[in-house]
Amino acid sequence: MEPKIKVAHLSKVFSDTKTGIDTQALLDIDLEVNDSELFCLVGPSGCGKTTFLRIVAGLETPSSGAVYLGGHIVNTPGPDRGLVFQEFALFPWRTVAENVVFGPEISGIPSSQRKQIANKYINLVRLAGKEHKYPKELSGGMKQRVAIARALANNPEVLLMDEPFGSLDAQTRNLMQIELLRIWNETKKTIIFVTHIVDEAIYLADRIAVMSASPGMIKEIFRINIKRPRDSTARSFRSYKRKILNIISAEVGDFST
Amino acid sequence: MKKRRLFRILSIAIFLLIWEIAALLVSKPQIFPMPIDVLIAFKVLLLSTGPAGVEWAGELLGHSLISLTRVVAGFCIASLSGILLGIVMGWWQPIRNLIEPIIEILRPIPPLAWIPLAMLWFGLGFKPAVFLIWLGAFSPILLNTIFGVESTSKNLIETAKTLGAKQRELLLKVVIPSAIPAIITGLSVGFGVGWMCLVAAELTGCNSGLGFMIMYYHWTMEPAKTIVGMLMIGFIGLLIFMILKRIENKLLAWREEI
Amino acid sequence: MVSGIKRAIVLITVILLLIICSGVHCAPPPEGEVRIGYLLGDLHHLPFFIALEKGFFKDERINVKVIGPFDAGTVEMDALVANQLDMGYVGTPPALIAAARKVDLSIIAGVNAEGSALIVDETINNVSDLRGKKIATPLPGSIQYVMLGMLLAENNMSYRDLEIFPGTIKPPDMPGVLETGHINGYIAWEPYPAEAVVMGVGKLLVESHDIWPDHPCCVLVTRNDFAEENRAIVQGVIRAHKRAIKFIGENPEEAKSIAVKYTKLNAKIIEEALPRIKFNYMVNVDGTRRFVKEIVSLGETGVISPIIRSEEVPDIDIFISKVIDLSFLEG
Fold it and tell me: Which of A55, A175, B42, C144 is the most exposed place for a label (fewest CB within 10 A)?
């Protein structure tokens, strides 16, 4: 079966015009993400995983190599690849419902249909009743759910998530992880999820790519063969965690959790 | 709350007391009137016949109304021109580079200095006065608009792009709404500056308005009436500021409290 | 806390009072020195410029500190009240207004009579053509404004038959505004009528001499308290003033070049304007009295908002005799 996303020999070099120093952010990344897969990218801070995701989203261009979505090259941003930021990035002057229908509004979908779309996805992320609230009235977890609903409202081919729960406290983060799995189950979307928290990656992922820093490279890809819901105290879970942490610490020289 | 009110009344009372004592000590009522003279002048100006067209309003309110129409007119033109140009300049860097130097050179020139040119180009009375008000109000509106456009969050723009927005939608659906708080601040400041330009603006051959009234009673050696005019300018300015603040808070209810 | 605030309030009050009061009281000048004010670009004050240039004040052993120029007569009077000036060359109306406001000053000598004119554009060829036209004048308290009324009355018209711009255009701006066509004419003191003629933007319709012969114009005033303590200085100033006026009659060419130097006006304009100005150290007492009567009456009949109220001058004759002091002239 054709992979949903194919990344071939992707490299990215940043040139600092002031100092003239070139930084190799990503080196020769090859990977494939399958349809409906929940694929995690884990690695220490600064390893280039955010850069990688931004290139897939089309917000940056690679120095060499390419990203293919369903067989076609993608290098500009678009609603086929929904993006969820750590900082939520909700439009503060729009209500929840207005945020969610931003994409459909731009593609010219008439307002009656837009209403249906808004309702569908607001219900999906379990925010019914909050349609007319403004972002400033929402908690962090709620804001992120709006961001997810907004990205999904365009029916993207793949959902890209960049440390989406990074701004939330530990309890909310755990709840949101459970929420994400439920939403993924219902929509069967392909998801690429970037995080530096190994526990989170193991809890969520079908497969995990472990990245190293300077330059950013894929060290190893694990398939997580544990049935969901996963117990972080179970031996199998801890065994994956140990393996992954070993790879990371071998690169960085300290533990990252 | 009650304490703050008490302090306000106290400070005004002390101000009046200082004024009274100083006027008594200096004892030159032709240039330094006493508070009571100002009060009498206030009553006289309220009741005397108003300027042409608003005779019924009395002198003080009549001149105030006329000044208000001029400032509102100048402000409206400044708002339209300032916001439009500000959006264009904030969004397209080459246009900004082209126009900005001209604006930076003209900006520090005080409206007073433009009076001869204003009279040459626009004649006497309403038109040159509105021009001078426009001059005062334009800069803050323009600069705040540019600032608002420029400080649109990069995250919001990138998000919009990933949701399918092209240049036109980015401008209309992200940049401009995001800039509205700054624009409204600019409008508030712009109106205030325009209002303060009244005295200069009405030296362009106007024979009515609060600015004109102040200068007129200066020339006829009636300082108490001049002070009434000055106080009126202050009061109306304050009133308008408070109204604009109310409107601002209503329109921007979605803003995060910082 | 409360006593701290009290103390702060008292302290601020005292400081503010000191600042305000000290600003308005200037220290008196040293002996033999006198501060004299004059008006911007005012050709009528030529005697002052000549006395300065030819050292007539020095000959009287008087050190003159020149204050100004002021751009309006009442502003000069404000400075007089504030003790920034001891004497001043100024128009009769501002001097009278100040006196009506109980400023303690006296008119002690004349400077000139006449020296004003009505300038019009090509659409006006006689006084009746003024009907419906736009005419600028100085403030309603000015002699020029009053004279225009006199001229109109003689021709069975009133201010209401014209569109008047009283005091809204300053005389220095009048020739320029006439050129742009936003007004059809103006009445003002020299050199502004001459400027229009020389520049070719207007023609002279009526001289003030033909409306009110010998009408008062500029005068020399002094603060009464200064004059009391420095009688000798004041008389010295007047002697120099008289000499300067004589000089103008005897040395017209040199007078012209001094005028150019002090007013910064061009020689052609001065040449056009000077013949219309009658320099005279005598005070036109009757003319001054008539002016006060006119001004008060214009205010009472509601033609203008009162400049001098009848309550301020209940008895005009007494007012005139108090404000005009000819004793220094005789000295």
Answer: A175
**Are B28 and B62 part of one and the same domain?**
no
Band (C331; pLDDT cuts 50, 70, 90): low
- In chain C, which residues have their Cβ closer than 8 Å to the Cβ of B209? none
Homologous superfamily (CATH) for C122-209: Periplasmic binding protein-like II (3.40.190.10)
Beta carbons of B173 and A151 less than 8 Å apart: no
Q: What is the pTM of this model?
A: 0.82
The correct answer on CATH 3.40.190.10 for the domain covering C33-114+217-330 is yes
pLDDT given at position B258 = 47
What is the pLDDT of chain C when averaged over all its residues?
Answer: 90
d(CA B20, CA B18) in angstroms, rounded, equals: 5
Q: Which of A76, A93, A98, A138 to mutate to test the interface with B (most CBs of B within 10 A)?
A: A93
Question: Is the CB of residue C180 less than 8 Å away from at least one CB of chain B?
Answer: yes
Residues B168 and B181 in one domain: yes
Q: Is pLDDT at C131 greater than 90 in this prediction?
A: yes
Would you list the domain boundaries of chain C? 33-114+217-330, 122-209
**Whole domain around residue B11: which residue ranges?**
1-32
The confidence score (pLDDT) of residue C137 equals 94
